[in-house]
């Protein structure tokens, strides 16, 4: 495994940052698989994005940007928990970015880029 781990490229842009609300219930990413800058093994990969609040899965979105910069919208699993976006994909080795967009029940959208690496099976 490459020792080159790069941190700090994890971005979160909050569309409601300047909006005054009674409670900030917009969705903040609290856990994920893969982790930011994490590593997965090539093949069929399960992915999970967990938020601090319930989200509207029908209007949330996962865009996978591949090693060749191709973009693919991933289908969100219907059985996902109410505060998670779950998906899966068949991934070859390379550098990927998962661009997520989550709509919280307060109507605010949050977005982020999560870079990760897929390595060949040993
Ligand atoms: Cu909000």
Automatic annotation (TrEMBL):
InterPro entries tied to this protein: CopC_dom, Cu-Rt/internalin_Ig-like, Ig_E-set
Top-level taxon in the UniProt lineage: Bacteria
Keywords linked to the UniProt accession: Copper, Signal
Signal peptide, first to last residue: 1-25
Sequence ranges assigned to domain CopC in this UniProt record: 26-118
Pfam family, any one: CopC
Protein name: Copper resistance protein
Taxonomic source organism: Dyella nitratireducens
Lineage of producing organism: Bacteria, Pseudomonadati, Pseudomonadota, Gammaproteobacteria, Lysobacterales
């Amino acid at each position: 495994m490459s020792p080159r781990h790069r941190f700090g490229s994890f971005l979160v842009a909050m569309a409601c940052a300047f909006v005054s609300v009674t409670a900030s219930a917009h969705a903040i990413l609290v856990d994920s698989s893969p982790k930011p800058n994490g590593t997965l093994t090539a093949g069929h990969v399960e992915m999970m994005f967990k938020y601090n609040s319930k989200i509207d899965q029908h209007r949330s979105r996962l865009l996978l940007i591949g090693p060749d910069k191709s973009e693919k919208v991933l289908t969100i699993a219907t059985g996902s928990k109410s505060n998670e976006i779950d998906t899966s994909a068949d991934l070859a080795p390379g550098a990927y970015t998962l661009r997520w967009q989550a709509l919280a029940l307060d109507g605010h959208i949050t977005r982020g880029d999560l870079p990760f690496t897929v390595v060949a099976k040993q």
